[in-house]
Amino acid sequence: xxxxxxxxxxxxxxxxxxxxxxxxxxxxxxxxxxxxxxxxxxxxxxxxxxxxxxxxxxxxxxxxxxxxxxxxxxxxxxxxxxxxxxxxxxxxxxxxxxxxxxxxxxxxxxxxxxxxxxxxxxxxxxxxxxxxxxxxxxxxxxxxxxxxxxxxxxxxxxxxxxxxxxxxxxxxxxxxxxxxxxxxxxxxxxxxxxxxxxxxxxxxxxxxxxxxxxxxxxxxxxxxxxxxxxxxxxxxxxxxxxxxxxxxxxxxxxxxxxxxxxxxxxxxxxxxxxxxxxxxxxxxxxxxxxxxxxxxxxxxxxxxxxxxxxxxxxxxxxxxxxxxxxxxxxxxxxxxxxxxxxxxxxxxxxxxxxxxxxxxxxxxxxxxxxxxxxxxxxxxxxxxxxxxxxxxxxx
Length: 395
Description:
Helices cover 73% and strands 0% of the residues. The protein is built from 19 helices and no strands. The chain has two domains: 7-154, no CATH class; 210-373, no CATH class. The chain has 395 residues and is an all-alpha fold. α5 (100-125) packs antiparallel against α6 (131-141) and α5 packs parallel to α8.
Protein backbone atom coordinates (compact mmCIF):
# COMPACT_ATOMS: atom_id res chain seq x y z
CA UNK A 1 0.00 0.00 0.00
CA UNK A 2 1.43 3.38 -1.06
CA UNK A 3 1.06 5.79 1.87
CA UNK A 4 2.43 8.83 0.04
CA UNK A 5 0.93 8.68 -3.44
CA UNK A 6 0.21 12.42 -3.34
CA UNK A 7 1.37 15.48 -1.37
CA UNK A 8 -1.87 15.34 0.65
CA UNK A 9 -1.04 11.78 1.69
CA UNK A 10 2.25 13.09 3.12
CA UNK A 11 0.74 16.12 4.85
CA UNK A 12 -2.53 14.70 6.22
CA UNK A 13 -0.98 12.26 8.74
CA UNK A 14 0.98 15.12 10.29
CA UNK A 15 -2.13 17.30 10.49
CA UNK A 16 -4.20 14.48 12.00
CA UNK A 17 -1.47 13.75 14.55
CA UNK A 18 -1.29 17.43 15.56
CA UNK A 19 -5.08 17.47 15.86
CA UNK A 20 -4.81 14.45 18.15
CA UNK A 21 -2.22 16.27 20.25
CA UNK A 22 -4.63 19.18 20.74
CA UNK A 23 -7.50 16.82 21.52
CA UNK A 24 -5.39 14.97 24.08
CA UNK A 25 -4.51 18.29 25.75
CA UNK A 26 -8.21 19.24 25.85
CA UNK A 27 -9.43 15.92 27.22
CA UNK A 28 -6.43 15.72 29.54
CA UNK A 29 -7.53 18.94 31.22
CA UNK A 30 -11.08 17.59 31.39
CA UNK A 31 -9.79 14.49 33.18
CA UNK A 32 -7.46 16.46 35.48
CA UNK A 33 -4.30 15.35 33.67
CA UNK A 34 -1.19 17.45 33.27
CA UNK A 35 -0.22 18.34 29.72
CA UNK A 36 2.96 16.27 30.06
CA UNK A 37 1.02 13.20 31.19
CA UNK A 38 -1.58 13.61 28.43
CA UNK A 39 1.08 13.85 25.75
CA UNK A 40 2.99 10.86 27.09
CA UNK A 41 -0.18 8.77 26.97
CA UNK A 42 -1.07 10.04 23.49
CA UNK A 43 2.42 9.26 22.20
CA UNK A 44 2.37 5.78 23.74
CA UNK A 45 -1.05 5.12 22.23
CA UNK A 46 0.18 6.32 18.84
CA UNK A 47 3.17 3.96 18.94
CA UNK A 48 0.82 1.00 19.23
CA UNK A 49 -1.46 2.50 16.58
CA UNK A 50 1.45 2.35 14.11
CA UNK A 51 2.28 -1.15 15.35
CA UNK A 52 -1.29 -2.26 14.58
CA UNK A 53 -1.11 -0.66 11.15
CA UNK A 54 2.05 -2.63 10.34
CA UNK A 55 0.45 -5.79 11.73
CA UNK A 56 -2.64 -5.30 9.55
CA UNK A 57 -0.49 -5.00 6.43
CA UNK A 58 1.65 -8.04 7.19
CA UNK A 59 -0.90 -10.39 8.75
CA UNK A 60 -4.25 -9.02 7.63
CA UNK A 61 -6.96 -7.47 9.79
CA UNK A 62 -10.51 -6.13 9.69
CA UNK A 63 -9.04 -2.64 9.37
CA UNK A 64 -8.08 -3.33 5.76
CA UNK A 65 -11.62 -4.51 4.99
CA UNK A 66 -13.10 -1.38 6.53
CA UNK A 67 -10.77 0.86 4.53
CA UNK A 68 -11.11 -0.97 1.23
CA UNK A 69 -14.84 -1.63 1.56
CA UNK A 70 -17.73 0.76 1.14
CA UNK A 71 -21.12 1.12 2.85
CA UNK A 72 -22.65 1.62 -0.59
CA UNK A 73 -22.33 -2.12 -1.10
CA UNK A 74 -24.62 -2.89 1.83
CA UNK A 75 -28.22 -3.77 1.15
CA UNK A 76 -29.61 -1.38 3.75
CA UNK A 77 -28.59 1.91 5.26
CA UNK A 78 -27.61 1.67 8.91
CA UNK A 79 -25.69 3.76 11.40
CA UNK A 80 -25.00 0.90 13.80
CA UNK A 81 -22.26 -1.66 14.18
CA UNK A 82 -20.09 -2.66 11.25
CA UNK A 83 -22.05 -0.50 8.82
CA UNK A 84 -21.28 2.60 10.88
CA UNK A 85 -17.54 1.92 10.72
CA UNK A 86 -17.72 1.36 6.95
CA UNK A 87 -19.57 4.65 6.51
CA UNK A 88 -17.30 6.64 8.77
CA UNK A 89 -14.18 5.23 7.12
CA UNK A 90 -15.68 5.91 3.68
CA UNK A 91 -16.25 9.52 4.75
CA UNK A 92 -12.65 9.86 5.94
CA UNK A 93 -11.08 8.21 2.90
CA UNK A 94 -13.55 9.52 0.30
CA UNK A 95 -14.77 13.00 1.23
CA UNK A 96 -11.59 13.97 3.11
CA UNK A 97 -9.20 11.93 1.00
CA UNK A 98 -7.36 10.50 4.00
CA UNK A 99 -4.91 7.66 3.46
CA UNK A 100 -4.90 4.37 5.36
CA UNK A 101 -2.33 5.82 7.77
CA UNK A 102 -4.34 9.01 8.35
CA UNK A 103 -7.54 7.02 8.97
CA UNK A 104 -5.69 4.94 11.53
CA UNK A 105 -4.57 8.12 13.28
CA UNK A 106 -8.17 9.41 13.40
CA UNK A 107 -9.33 6.23 15.16
CA UNK A 108 -6.26 6.54 17.38
CA UNK A 109 -7.58 9.91 18.61
CA UNK A 110 -10.92 8.31 19.52
CA UNK A 111 -9.22 5.56 21.50
CA UNK A 112 -6.90 8.06 23.22
CA UNK A 113 -9.89 9.93 24.71
CA UNK A 114 -10.94 6.78 26.55
CA UNK A 115 -7.32 6.02 27.45
CA UNK A 116 -6.94 9.40 29.18
CA UNK A 117 -10.18 8.86 31.11
CA UNK A 118 -9.08 5.39 32.23
CA UNK A 119 -5.67 6.60 33.39
CA UNK A 120 -7.20 9.49 35.31
CA UNK A 121 -9.70 7.19 37.00
CA UNK A 122 -7.09 4.63 38.02
CA UNK A 123 -4.59 7.23 39.26
CA UNK A 124 -7.28 8.87 41.38
CA UNK A 125 -8.31 5.50 42.79
CA UNK A 126 -4.77 4.47 43.76
CA UNK A 127 -3.68 7.85 45.15
CA UNK A 128 -3.88 6.54 48.73
CA UNK A 129 -2.64 3.01 47.97
CA UNK A 130 0.85 1.60 48.55
CA UNK A 131 3.65 2.25 46.07
CA UNK A 132 3.45 -1.37 44.96
CA UNK A 133 -0.22 -1.01 44.02
CA UNK A 134 0.48 2.29 42.25
CA UNK A 135 3.19 0.63 40.16
CA UNK A 136 0.90 -2.29 39.42
CA UNK A 137 -1.83 0.10 38.29
CA UNK A 138 0.67 1.93 36.07
CA UNK A 139 1.64 -1.37 34.46
CA UNK A 140 -2.02 -2.03 33.67
CA UNK A 141 -2.41 1.42 32.09
CA UNK A 142 0.64 0.85 29.89
CA UNK A 143 -0.25 -2.69 28.81
CA UNK A 144 0.49 -2.91 25.06
CA UNK A 145 -2.80 -4.60 24.18
CA UNK A 146 -4.84 -1.81 25.79
CA UNK A 147 -3.44 0.74 23.33
CA UNK A 148 -3.01 -1.76 20.49
CA UNK A 149 -6.65 -2.80 20.22
CA UNK A 150 -8.11 0.65 20.92
CA UNK A 151 -6.17 2.45 18.18
CA UNK A 152 -7.15 0.73 14.93
CA UNK A 153 -9.82 1.31 12.31
CA UNK A 154 -12.82 -0.56 13.69
CA UNK A 155 -15.40 -0.68 16.47
CA UNK A 156 -12.98 -1.19 19.35
CA UNK A 157 -11.81 2.44 19.83
CA UNK A 158 -15.45 3.52 20.18
CA UNK A 159 -16.37 0.66 22.53
CA UNK A 160 -13.28 1.13 24.70
CA UNK A 161 -13.75 4.90 24.96
CA UNK A 162 -17.46 4.48 25.72
CA UNK A 163 -16.63 2.08 28.56
CA UNK A 164 -13.97 4.38 30.04
CA UNK A 165 -16.19 7.46 29.80
CA UNK A 166 -19.03 5.55 31.48
CA UNK A 167 -16.68 4.57 34.32
CA UNK A 168 -15.38 8.12 34.73
CA UNK A 169 -18.87 9.66 34.66
CA UNK A 170 -20.19 7.12 37.18
CA UNK A 171 -17.68 8.41 39.75
CA UNK A 172 -19.67 11.65 39.99
CA UNK A 173 -22.88 11.20 38.02
CA UNK A 174 -24.42 14.45 39.34
CA UNK A 175 -21.78 16.57 37.57
CA UNK A 176 -21.00 14.25 34.64
CA UNK A 177 -24.43 13.48 33.21
CA UNK A 178 -23.46 14.72 29.74
CA UNK A 179 -20.44 12.43 29.65
CA UNK A 180 -22.62 9.51 30.77
CA UNK A 181 -25.09 10.09 27.93
CA UNK A 182 -22.18 10.53 25.48
CA UNK A 183 -20.72 7.18 26.54
CA UNK A 184 -24.05 5.47 25.85
CA UNK A 185 -24.30 7.16 22.43
CA UNK A 186 -20.77 6.03 21.48
CA UNK A 187 -21.49 2.45 22.52
CA UNK A 188 -24.82 2.49 20.70
CA UNK A 189 -23.05 3.29 17.44
CA UNK A 190 -20.90 0.14 17.53
CA UNK A 191 -22.44 -2.31 20.02
CA UNK A 192 -26.12 -1.51 20.69
CA UNK A 193 -26.66 -4.53 22.96
CA UNK A 194 -23.93 -3.32 25.34
CA UNK A 195 -25.43 0.19 25.23
CA UNK A 196 -28.69 -1.34 26.46
CA UNK A 197 -26.87 -2.84 29.45
CA UNK A 198 -25.27 0.53 30.19
CA UNK A 199 -28.65 2.30 30.12
CA UNK A 200 -30.15 -0.20 32.56
CA UNK A 201 -27.12 0.00 34.85
CA UNK A 202 -27.18 3.81 34.93
CA UNK A 203 -30.93 3.76 35.60
CA UNK A 204 -30.57 1.38 38.54
CA UNK A 205 -27.59 3.28 39.97
CA UNK A 206 -29.66 6.49 40.03
CA UNK A 207 -32.06 4.85 42.47
CA UNK A 208 -29.18 4.46 44.96
CA UNK A 209 -27.53 7.81 44.31
CA UNK A 210 -27.47 10.36 47.12
CA UNK A 211 -25.74 12.96 44.97
CA UNK A 212 -29.01 14.00 43.33
CA UNK A 213 -32.33 15.15 44.83
CA UNK A 214 -35.20 12.73 44.53
CA UNK A 215 -36.97 14.65 41.76
CA UNK A 216 -33.73 14.86 39.73
CA UNK A 217 -33.18 11.14 40.13
CA UNK A 218 -36.74 10.45 39.06
CA UNK A 219 -36.46 12.65 35.98
CA UNK A 220 -33.19 11.08 34.87
CA UNK A 221 -34.61 7.64 35.52
CA UNK A 222 -37.49 8.46 33.17
CA UNK A 223 -35.01 9.71 30.55
CA UNK A 224 -32.98 6.51 30.74
CA UNK A 225 -36.07 4.30 30.51
CA UNK A 226 -37.33 6.24 27.47
CA UNK A 227 -33.89 5.81 25.89
CA UNK A 228 -34.06 2.08 26.58
CA UNK A 229 -37.51 1.79 24.98
CA UNK A 230 -36.17 3.53 21.87
CA UNK A 231 -32.98 1.47 21.78
CA UNK A 232 -34.60 -1.94 22.38
CA UNK A 233 -35.88 -2.38 18.78
CA UNK A 234 -32.47 -1.35 17.44
CA UNK A 235 -30.77 -3.91 19.67
CA UNK A 236 -33.13 -6.69 18.58
CA UNK A 237 -32.60 -5.83 14.92
CA UNK A 238 -28.82 -5.54 15.36
CA UNK A 239 -28.34 -8.95 16.98
CA UNK A 240 -30.94 -10.59 14.75
CA UNK A 241 -33.43 -11.59 17.43
CA UNK A 242 -37.15 -10.97 17.26
CA UNK A 243 -38.56 -8.66 19.94
CA UNK A 244 -41.00 -11.47 20.79
CA UNK A 245 -38.27 -14.08 21.04
CA UNK A 246 -38.80 -17.00 23.42
CA UNK A 247 -36.19 -18.62 25.67
CA UNK A 248 -35.70 -21.33 23.02
CA UNK A 249 -34.97 -18.64 20.43
CA UNK A 250 -32.38 -17.09 22.73
CA UNK A 251 -30.72 -20.46 23.39
CA UNK A 252 -30.59 -21.15 19.65
CA UNK A 253 -29.01 -17.74 19.07
CA UNK A 254 -26.33 -18.34 21.73
CA UNK A 255 -25.54 -21.77 20.33
CA UNK A 256 -25.16 -20.33 16.83
CA UNK A 257 -22.80 -17.66 18.15
CA UNK A 258 -20.74 -20.26 20.01
CA UNK A 259 -20.18 -22.06 16.73
CA UNK A 260 -19.17 -18.98 14.72
CA UNK A 261 -15.71 -17.46 14.15
CA UNK A 262 -14.00 -20.81 14.65
CA UNK A 263 -11.43 -20.20 11.94
CA UNK A 264 -7.77 -19.95 12.87
CA UNK A 265 -5.59 -21.39 15.61
CA UNK A 266 -7.01 -19.17 18.37
CA UNK A 267 -10.48 -20.73 18.25
CA UNK A 268 -11.76 -22.83 21.16
CA UNK A 269 -14.84 -24.93 21.85
CA UNK A 270 -17.06 -23.34 24.51
CA UNK A 271 -20.27 -25.32 23.94
CA UNK A 272 -21.18 -27.34 27.02
CA UNK A 273 -18.73 -25.46 29.26
CA UNK A 274 -20.33 -23.89 32.38
CA UNK A 275 -20.71 -20.12 32.11
CA UNK A 276 -18.26 -19.29 34.96
CA UNK A 277 -15.50 -21.20 33.14
CA UNK A 278 -16.45 -19.51 29.86
CA UNK A 279 -16.05 -16.15 31.60
CA UNK A 280 -12.65 -17.02 33.05
CA UNK A 281 -11.50 -18.37 29.71
CA UNK A 282 -12.70 -15.23 27.92
CA UNK A 283 -10.80 -12.93 30.25
CA UNK A 284 -7.57 -14.79 31.05
CA UNK A 285 -6.67 -16.93 28.05
CA UNK A 286 -4.23 -17.60 26.54
CA UNK A 287 -2.36 -18.61 29.68
CA UNK A 288 1.38 -19.16 30.14
CA UNK A 289 0.81 -22.84 29.30
CA UNK A 290 -0.80 -22.00 25.94
CA UNK A 291 1.97 -19.89 24.39
CA UNK A 292 2.55 -20.78 20.73
CA UNK A 293 3.62 -17.46 19.19
CA UNK A 294 5.07 -14.06 20.07
CA UNK A 295 1.60 -12.52 20.28
CA UNK A 296 0.32 -15.27 22.55
CA UNK A 297 3.41 -14.72 24.77
CA UNK A 298 2.56 -11.03 25.18
CA UNK A 299 -1.10 -11.85 25.83
CA UNK A 300 -0.21 -14.53 28.38
CA UNK A 301 2.06 -12.15 30.32
CA UNK A 302 -0.64 -9.47 30.32
CA UNK A 303 -3.26 -11.98 31.44
CA UNK A 304 -0.99 -13.04 34.30
CA UNK A 305 -0.72 -9.43 35.44
CA UNK A 306 -4.50 -9.02 35.22
CA UNK A 307 -4.92 -12.21 37.24
CA UNK A 308 -2.77 -10.69 39.99
CA UNK A 309 -4.98 -7.58 39.99
CA UNK A 310 -8.16 -9.66 40.21
CA UNK A 311 -6.77 -11.85 43.01
CA UNK A 312 -5.82 -8.75 44.99
CA UNK A 313 -9.36 -7.49 44.54
CA UNK A 314 -10.94 -10.78 45.60
CA UNK A 315 -8.70 -10.90 48.65
CA UNK A 316 -9.65 -7.33 49.54
CA UNK A 317 -13.38 -8.01 49.33
CA UNK A 318 -13.06 -11.23 51.35
CA UNK A 319 -11.16 -9.43 54.11
CA UNK A 320 -13.44 -6.41 54.30
CA UNK A 321 -16.42 -6.24 51.99
CA UNK A 322 -17.54 -2.65 51.68
CA UNK A 323 -18.84 -0.38 48.96
CA UNK A 324 -17.14 3.01 48.82
CA UNK A 325 -20.01 4.38 46.74
CA UNK A 326 -23.20 2.37 46.54
CA UNK A 327 -24.45 4.13 43.40
CA UNK A 328 -21.11 3.71 41.64
CA UNK A 329 -20.85 0.02 42.40
CA UNK A 330 -24.49 -0.63 41.56
CA UNK A 331 -23.61 0.66 38.09
CA UNK A 332 -20.24 -1.10 37.74
CA UNK A 333 -21.22 -4.55 38.93
CA UNK A 334 -24.23 -5.24 36.66
CA UNK A 335 -22.74 -3.36 33.70
CA UNK A 336 -19.42 -5.22 33.74
CA UNK A 337 -20.68 -8.66 34.75
CA UNK A 338 -23.65 -8.79 32.35
CA UNK A 339 -21.40 -7.61 29.51
CA UNK A 340 -18.79 -10.16 30.55
CA UNK A 341 -21.30 -13.01 30.65
CA UNK A 342 -22.82 -12.17 27.26
CA UNK A 343 -19.47 -11.84 25.51
CA UNK A 344 -18.02 -14.95 27.15
CA UNK A 345 -21.05 -17.07 26.19
CA UNK A 346 -20.97 -16.00 22.55
CA UNK A 347 -17.24 -15.70 21.72
CA UNK A 348 -15.30 -18.82 20.78
CA UNK A 349 -12.28 -17.06 19.30
CA UNK A 350 -9.50 -15.96 21.68
CA UNK A 351 -8.29 -13.38 19.17
CA UNK A 352 -11.69 -11.69 19.16
CA UNK A 353 -11.89 -12.03 22.95
CA UNK A 354 -8.49 -10.33 23.38
CA UNK A 355 -9.86 -7.39 21.41
CA UNK A 356 -13.35 -7.15 22.84
CA UNK A 357 -12.56 -7.70 26.50
CA UNK A 358 -11.20 -4.15 26.84
CA UNK A 359 -14.83 -3.03 26.79
CA UNK A 360 -15.25 -4.40 30.30
CA UNK A 361 -11.71 -4.59 31.70
CA UNK A 362 -11.60 -0.91 32.76
CA UNK A 363 -14.58 -1.52 35.04
CA UNK A 364 -13.27 -4.86 36.35
CA UNK A 365 -9.84 -3.38 37.06
CA UNK A 366 -11.49 -0.50 38.94
CA UNK A 367 -13.62 -2.91 40.98
CA UNK A 368 -10.52 -4.95 41.86
CA UNK A 369 -8.20 -2.09 42.81
CA UNK A 370 -10.92 -0.34 44.83
CA UNK A 371 -10.92 -3.32 47.19
CA UNK A 372 -7.19 -2.97 47.95
CA UNK A 373 -6.70 -1.29 51.31
CA UNK A 374 -5.16 2.20 51.50
CA UNK A 375 -1.52 2.49 52.55
CA UNK A 376 -2.37 3.98 55.96
CA UNK A 377 -4.58 1.01 56.80
CA UNK A 378 -1.88 -1.41 55.71
CA UNK A 379 0.59 0.43 57.99
CA UNK A 380 -1.81 0.27 60.93
CA UNK A 381 -2.24 -3.47 60.36
CA UNK A 382 1.53 -3.93 60.53
CA UNK A 383 1.82 -1.75 63.64
CA UNK A 384 -0.95 -3.65 65.40
CA UNK A 385 0.84 -6.94 64.74
CA UNK A 386 4.05 -5.76 66.53
CA UNK A 387 4.20 -6.79 70.22
CA UNK A 388 3.96 -3.87 72.69
CA UNK A 389 7.58 -4.22 73.93
CA UNK A 390 8.90 -4.34 70.41
CA UNK A 391 6.84 -1.26 69.55
CA UNK A 392 8.38 0.69 72.48
CA UNK A 393 11.84 -0.36 71.37
CA UNK A 394 11.18 0.95 67.88
CA UNK A 395 10.05 4.33 69.20
